[in-house]
Amino acid sequence: MESGDGPRDDGFRFGNGRLCFTFTATLGDRGAPAPRERLAVPGDLSRWCVEAGLLDEAPPAGPVTLTAARRLREAIDRAAERVRTGGSPDPRDAEILNDWAARPALAPRLDEGGRLGWHQDGAQVRHVLALVARDAVDVLTGPARSRLRRCADPDCEGLFVDVSRPGNRRWCSMNTCGNKAKKAAYRRRHPQSG
C-alpha cells in the first residue's frame, strides 16, 4: 500500500505506517508558520491515489472532490489529536469520518506476487477517500489509539502510530524527521565539522 519512506519529488510522504496518516501528511509542515499544501490542485489528489499504490490510474478529481478530501484530511487530523490527548473526536469530525467510511471503498486483494493490492470496478478517487476514512476509524477505535503520536519535529507535527516495543518513538519517520534531528544534534556537538 505504501512504498518508501520520506518525501518524493512531488513532496508526498509515504511510509509512516497507516494510510490515514499518509493522507494527513498531504498537508506538510503543520507546525511551521506556513504549512505546505501538497494537494494544491485536483490533479495532486489523483496523483496521490496512484503514488500511494491504491489505484493504477486515477480518474481526474474535480474541485469539489478536492475540497471534500481536504475536509476529510483535517477531520482525521483533529479527531486523532483529540483521541491522542485522551478525548473523543468532535461530533462534526466524527460525522465527516463516518459519512466517508460508509461509502463504497476499494476492496483488498492479493496480487500475483502475494502482496496487498486494491480493486474496485470503476474505481474513483471517492473510493480511495472511503478507504482512508475506514482506516482512520480503525485507528481511532482500535488498539492503535493508545499508540497515537505527533512527530517531535516542531515543523512536521505529523501523526503516526508508535509500533516500537517500548512505545517511545519520537519521529514520524527516522528517514526524514529523525535523521534531520540526528544531523542537527551532531552539528551542535561538532560545530567545526558542519
From TrEMBL:
One Pfam assignment: zf-CGNR
Database matches in Gene3D superfamilies: Jann2411-like domain
Ranges of residues in domain Zinc finger CGNR: 147-190
Domain of life: Bacteria
Membrane-crossing segments per the record: none
Protein name: Zinc finger CGNR domain-containing protein
Higher taxonomy: Bacteria, Bacillati, Actinomycetota, Actinomycetes, Streptosporangiales
